Amino acid sequence: MTEKVMMKGNEAIGEAAILAGCLTYFGYPITPQSELPAYLARRLLKMENGIFLQAESEVAAINMVYGAAGTGKRVMTSSSSPGISLKTEGISYIASSQLPCVIVNIVRGGPGLGNIAPAQSDYFQATKGGGHGDYRLIVLAPASVQEMADFTMLGFDLADEYRNPVMIMGDGALGQMMEPVVLKKPEIKKYNHDWVTDGAKGRGQNLICSIYLDPAEMEKYVHEIYAKYKIIEENEVRYEEYLCDDADYLIVSYGITSRIVRTSIDLARKKGIKVGLLRPITVWPFPTKVISEYADKVKKVMAVELSMGQMVEDVRLAVNGKVPVEFFGRTAGVLPSCNEVLAEIEKLV
Amino acid sequence: MGKLNEKIIVAGFGGQGVLLLGKLLSYTAMYSDKNVSWIPSYGPEMRGGTANCNVVISDEPVGSPIVTEPNVLIALNRPSLEKFEQILEEGSLLIYNSSIIEVEPKWNNGKVISLAASDIANELGNPRLTNMVAAGAYVKASGVFTIQELIDAVPHVISKRFHNLIPLNIEAIEKGAAAVS
Amino acid sequence: MEKLVFDKPKCMTERPLHYCPGCSHGIVHRIVGELIDEMDLRDKTVGVAPVGCGVFAYWYFDFDFSQAPHGRAPAVATGIKRPNPDLFVFTYQGDGDLAAIGTAEIIHAANRSEDITVIFINNAIYGMTGGQMAPTTLVGQKTTTSPYGRDPETMGKPIRVCEMLSTLEGTTYAERVHVGDPKGVIATKKALKKAFEVQVNKKGFSIVEILSTCPTNWGMTAVDSLGWMKDNMIPYFPLGVYKDKTKEGDA
Questions:
Q1: pLDDT tens digits, residue range C39-86?
Q2: Residues of chain C neighbouring A56 (CB-CB closer than 8 A)
Q3: Domain B5-115+143-163 has CATH 3.40.50.300
Q4: Which chain A residues touch B42 with a CB distance below 8 Å?
């Protein structure tokens, strides 16, 4: 499928996963991501080696992912906010055991049961842990259906490369919307699998575990994982700039919100306001360095996101007091209009 | 003519083919190499009662796929008209299904087209063609695509089981276009 | 000339067991090791260790192991087995792990008839966390969280896992045994062998519930605990085969 097709974001993730060699999926239904398991059920159940299993819960699903990832298979699960909360115990185990997998969160309005409209209020959960202990996920934030597909493929590669769980953090709008998308089968590298638990034929025991009762031993292990995170921070920061070169004001915004901001920036430019957009593509690792560099050049920075102010904390850390950092957010499933964001941009001047 | 930026709301009863009408416009846009997004209202909102979808067709990359300030409204029933005419921008295009909407639109700030979509569909023998009639009327009235481009996209949105009905759908599109003077 | 008359199974390691004196885990580990050797399964086995005293089970075997979050061993085993149907996958779970926090996972793994074998150690108490009430703690039994004895009015009665799981269509084999005396140990090995064969023959879900002792948390000597288990647990948890679909001819 290398021609343009119209696809929902949720379905594009499903097809991209299959193209990336992920034939194993475990999940539990929740709106607004249910098209993804439905798509994979239709496809995988007809494939000879396809495994699609609707688990009894999100908790079970993530632990099935843990089991399958330990055998070296490309494996995925997906859910939406409340379901991700349930998965966080398993995610912590997977991160600690250094297993590759892709976890999709099609974020919805919260907290609590909330609603099924688009939101970005799971940013802390995705980038600051969510589950217990010291760990990090690589978190990719697509802003289009094409990126939902592309980042899914990229996510599997990053997961295998670093033996680390990767989260694709979309939202209800990206999951539900259709856009033209081109799906190309990627080349899949051979990764070292000498650690997997697939039967110890001709070798000693391989062990997937995350228990180290001796604190000193555990501390040493956590340091090892953090050395890996440091490499990820050095190599894998991704972001996109739009009209930043001459900007007096820098907006930092990601995912669906960044599209609205882009339109608002076009409107502001027509009014003579020099404003640019920096869109984090990896929200972990966060593009701290480039934002810090812009903070030397611009008059003000503003974070725009669908939350009460979560990513803005990372923006403030990056700016580190060099210039004022403003915040504009809508939350609980409400999207701002481009005119609303424009009004906020005008307030910066 | 300025840059293309159609921010469309298609709304009606569930079963009137509102989502399919939006999909048809989206596919037509894609095959015409325009930027396009389509998003349905989803979840409990779509159970029983009204359905709507948002389509954005643009020369520029699409910003928000969710249309809060529409410049096109295709209303196939009265609740949809009354709900969305309130947020139509000045100079917009409003097409309403006058077969079953017995009131005049309150909005009168641009182009208003009264289209007897359900009647035309019934004359063709199938009330489910209402959406295709409306699609034809929209394309004719907006001039965003040619009618042929619209017709060419039809096979992409109709499931294979119903491909025998393609000629009828095309006829409905043509009748809808002809209804717009 | 020296003649070797007793040795540890080949698939077991040299590491001394960390279990308390009188604990049944050692006996069950040995049976598992003997069967893995005898059935030549070592090269394709992945064990799934629980949270509980058995958390370090992987120390004592030299085949692959995965250590599961508390209660989730059947889900982890499902994840291992589904994309790798030729592996031999067993879970090793205690009563808190399987019958409390992991109730959903065990029921649904059984219901889907996952091709896995569950080794269920029922000693009527939480061992690792220090003697709290388990879902299988007997009525009246004192634990640190039922200090006046398990009160069925407020704490419910002990769950009979084999009986419960045998109601599910997906359960192919379910048997309850004990390791309180040599006869029981021999019966346990026979039951586990049967359960392993069910999986090797791809016949679906098998579980062996093994009534076991925990002298430390029961507050008894090892010898007394064996008697207590037989006198108190067996009457409430009767031994026997609860489900054998291989005999029904429909498995």
A1: 999 999 999 999 999 999 999 999 999 999 999 999 999 999 999 999
A2: 104-105, 107-108
A3: no
A4: 31-32, 116, 172, 176
